TrEMBL record:
InterPro entries membership: 6-phosphogluconolactonase_DevB (IPR005900), 6PGL (IPR039104), Glc/Gal-6P_isomerase (IPR006148), NagB/RpiA_transferase-like (IPR037171)
Official protein name in the record: 6-phosphogluconolactonase
GO MF terms held by the record: 6-phosphogluconolactonase activity
Function of the molecule: Hydrolysis of 6-phosphogluconolactone to 6-phosphogluconate.
């Protein structure tokens, strides 16, 4: 592991292998959730979907923790049925909410309504049960610099980035997203004790470096988490 130190709220932790990364990140997340439970009696864990976090979910699921005091939700969801292979909830239910972690509560980001726009109000109310600041927010990043479902050229990107009106979540449609989405807003995700950006592979490292160098948030929305000061952000990366 090679931590880089500077004055920014963004720290970088680079690992030689993915196994080492996932082991260390699992320990860190469990430690942070335990601290929250000790301090507040409960903890929140916001996770991302996609392919990258699957091995981490397997390790977390086997970790001993008072999972009954943990509420898990997603940073974003594809607007598909929960048995659809593209569903982030399916990924979480099958890989994280098993073993010890089966005792955790899960807030889905999907409603029976046919569009995410119709589901937004219901979901915003559902998310209001989460105590702020959130405890651990685990983000991923796509090769286009999207995180959660904050996509470049997303139809609601400006609203999701600004969180106008206290928006906790936002419907999103974007050229780079195969399905309509629901995403947590950037201000809601950033109102957290710890944000982690989990990435693997050289391509994503290059995108992250480009984002960190500065530029418009709309072009690489991951920048919303790098161009801010109050929230600690840790970038976990392995080849
Ligand atoms: O569509 C999504 O993509 C990102 C990145 O996914 P990955 O497969 O490249 O790991 C993910 O963080 C997000 O939650 C997901 O909905």
């Amino acid at each position: 592991m090679s931590p880089a130190s500077d004055q920014s709220p963004v720290s970088e932790l680079h690992f030689e292998t993915r196994d080492l990364l996932f082991e260390q990140l699992c320990l860190t997340v469990v430690d942070q959730l335990n601290q929250a439970i000790r301090q507040r009696g409960s903890a929140s864990l916001i996770v991302s979907g996609g392919s990258t976090p699957k091995p981490l979910f397997a390790l977390l699921a086997q970790s001993e923790l008072d999972w009954a005091k943990v509420t898990v939700t997603l940073a974003d969801e594809r607007w598909v049925d929960e048995d659809d292979p593209a569903s982030n909830a399916k990924l979480v239910r099958e890989n994280l909410l098993v073993g010890h972690a089966a005792a955790a509560s899960f807030l889905s980001l999907k409603t029976p309504e046919s569009t995410p726009e119709q589901g937004e109000k219901t979901l915003s109310d559902r998310l209001a049960v989460l105590v702020e600041p959130l405890d651990v927010v685990l983000l991923g990043m796509g090769g286009d610099g999207h995180t959660a479902s904050l996509f470049p050229k997303g139809d609601q990107l400006a609203r999701a980035l600004s969180g106008t009106g206290g928006t906790r979540c936002c419907a999103m449609r974007a050229p780079g997203a195969a399905q309509p989405r629901m995403t947590l807003s950037a201000p809601f995700l950033l109102h957290a004790r710890q944000v982690v950006i989990l990435c693997t592979g050289e391509d994503k490292r290059r995108v992250f470096e480009e984002a960190r160098a500065g530029g418009p948030v709309e072009d690489l929305p991951i920048r919303a988490f790098l161009q801010q000061t109050p929230t600690p952000v840790a970038f976990y990366w392995a080849p």
